[in-house]
Write a structure and sequence with these properties.
The complex is a heterodimer of chains A (about 170) and B (about 240). Chain A has about 170 residues and is mainly alpha-helical. In chain A, about 70% of the residues lie in helices and about 0% in strands. Classes of the chains: A mainly alpha (about 170), B alpha+beta (about 240). Strand 1 of chain A pairs parallel with strand 1 of chain B.
Chain lengths: ~170, ~240
C-alpha cells in the first residue's frame, strides 16, 4: 500500500526546503542535515501517514523523532565506545571554515547545550516561523509548554552568548 | 527579572501576546528601563539565531531526496464521505464565492479546494491583513468580490481571527478567517440572505448562522478587540 496520497506527496515536495532547513538548524552542519532529511523521508515513505494528516506538519514530527533517535544513538555510542566499530568524525568540516558557517557553528554549539525540548521549540518558532499553536501540534505538547520552553531557551542562550553579562533573572 | 516577565517578553517577541496584554507590556516597557533592557537582550539573542540560519542554501535539498519523493508511489485519494457535512458546504460556498466552481457535482473537488485553494485566497488574505472592521460599507477585491471585516479577536490557540462578510453577485456569506504563517485562511463560511437594505443581512438558516457563532464561541480567547486595539494590532502587522 503506497504511503502517501498525491496531495500529501505534493505538499511534502513543496515543503522539502523548509524541512531541510529545520534539519540543518537541529544538526548544525550540511552533512548531518542531509542524513537527517533522508532518514525522515525514508520513514515517511516506509511507514506512511494517516490519510487526513497534514503532510508538512507530519513530516516535521517524523523529523523531530528521527533527530531524537539519533541523539540517543550518539549518547549510547559515547557511553559505550568499545561497541562502536565506526570511526566518528570529530574535526570541524571544511564547510565550517567559511564565515557564515562559522556563525552557524557558533549558534549551533550554543543550541547544542540546550535541552532538546527547548531547542526543538525555539527552532520551530524562531527559525521556522511557526506559531506556538503549530509548534505545539508538531511536538504534541500544550501551547503553554511551548511558551515556557521558548522563554527558557532564550534565557539560556543569553547566558551562553553573554557569559559575563549581568544576571537579572530570578527563578530557574 | 522574574520568570513570568521572561515569558511575557518572549511571547511579545513572537507576537503571541493578546492585544490587551501586549498593550500592558508596552506601557511597562516605557516605565521600566530594566525590563526594556531585558527585551533588547532577548531580541539580540533572537536575531543572532535567526541570522545564523537565514541563508537560502540551507534549504537546498539533495536531488536524490527529491527523487525519492517524486518517484514514490501514491495511493488514491480517499472518498470525501468522512468530510461530508458543514465543511463540504463551506467548500462549495467558497467555490461559488471565488468564482472557481468548475463542477458543482464534484464533492472531491470541493474537498480539495478546502485543503488547497482556500488556503491561497490571497486577495481576501491581503484585505484582512490591512482593512479595519466596520458596520457598513465594503472593500472591493480585484476580482469584484466585496468584503467587509466585522470584528477581530484572539483565538485560544494564539492566532488572530477575523469575522467578515463577503458579497458576490447578489449572494452574501459570513465567515471567519484566522492568521497563520502571515496569511489569513477561512475556517468557517456560511451563506446569508439580504433582509432588505443593502447593509442588513440575516442568516439563510439557523444552522449556517450557528456555524459561525459556534466557531467563535469555541475558539475566541476573549471578547473582540475594540477598534482602537484593532488599529494598533494592524499597525504592528498582527504582532
Amino acid at each position: 500500500m503506497p504511503a502517501l496520497s498525491d496531495l500529501q506527496r505534493e505538499v511534502l515536495l513543496a515543503g522539502l526546503g523548509g524541512l531541510r532547513k529545520f534539519c540543518y538548524s537541529l544538526t548544525g552542519n550540511a552533512a548531518d542535515a542531509d542524513d537527517l532529511l533522508q532518514t525522515t523521508v525514508e520513514r515517511l515513505l516506509d511507514k506512511g501517514m494517516p490519510e487526513d494528516a497534514h503532510a508538512a506538519k507530519w513530516a516535521y514530527r517524523v523529523c523531530k523523532n528521527a533527530w531524537i533517535d539519533e541523539i540517543r544513538s550518539r549518547q549510547v555510542r559515547h557511553r559505550y565506545p568499545h561497541l562502536v566499530a565506526e570511526h566518528e568524525e570529530v574535526s570541524p568540516s571544511a564547510e565550517q571554515t567559511a564565515s557564515g558557517e562559522r556563525q552557524i557553528a557558533a549558534v549551533s554549539n550554543a543550541m547544542d547545550q540546550l535541552p532538546k525540548e527547548q531547542r526543538l521549540a525555539l527552532t520551530l518558532v524562531t527559525i521556522e516561523g511557526k506559531t506556538y499553536a503549530e509548534a505545539a501540534e508538531i511536538l504534541e505538547v500544550p501551547v503553554g509548554t511551548i511558551m515556557s520552553r521558548i522563554a527558557r531557551a532564550r534565557r539560556n542562550l543569553m547566558g551562553l552568548f553573554e557569559p559575563s553579562g549581568e544576571t537579572e533573572y530570578g527563578g530557574q | 527579572m522574574t520568570e513570568q516577565d521572561n515569558e511575557l517578553l518572549s511571547q511579545y517577541l513572537d507576537g503571541e501576546l493578546a492585544a490587551p496584554a501586549a498593550q500592558s507590556l508596552r506601557q511597562r516597557l516605557i516605565a521600566e528601563p530594566q525590563l526594556r533592557r531585558a527585551l533588547e537582550r532577548l531580541r539580540a539573542v533572537d536575531n543572532r539565531v535567526k541570522n545564523a540560519f537565514e541563508a537560502p542554501a540551507l534549504e537546498a535539498v539533495p536531488q536524490h531526496v527529491v527523487n525519492m519523493v517524486q518517484n514514490a508511489a501514491t495511493r488514491p485519494e480517499r472518498s470525501s464521505h468522512k468530510r461530508a457535512g458543514w465543511g463540504l458546504a463551506i467548500a462549495a460556498s467558497l467555490l461559488v464565492a471565488t468564482g472557481l466552481l468548475m463542477n458543482p457535482e464534484s464533492s472531491q473537488q470541493s474537498v480539495d479546494y478546502m485543503t488547497t485553494v482556500a488556503a491561497q485566497d490571497s486577495l481576501l488574505s491581503q484585505l484582512l491583513e490591512h482593512s479595519a472592521s466596520r458596520g457598513e460599507g465594503w472593500d472591493t477585491l480585484d476580482d469584484g468580490r466585496q468584503v467587509r471585516p466585522l470584528l477581530s479577536f484572539a483565538s485560544m490557540d494564539g492566532s488572530w481571527c477575523r469575522e467578515y462578510l463577503m458579497s458576490n453577485e447578489g449572494t452574501t456569506w459570513r465567515g471567519v478567517a484566522c492568521r497563520t504563517d502571515n496569511a489569513w485562511t477561512t475556517q468557517v463560511l456560511s451563506p446569508e440572505q439580504a433582509s432588505g437594505s443593502s447593509n442588513e443581512y440575516r442568516p439563510a438558516g439557523a444552522v449556517s448562522a450557528d456555524q459561525v457563532t459556534s466557531f467563535i464561541d469555541a475558539h475566541a480567547a476573549a471578547i473582540a478587540l475594540s477598534l482602537k486595539e484593532e488599529a494598533s494590532v494592524i499597525a504592528s502587522k498582527w504582532r
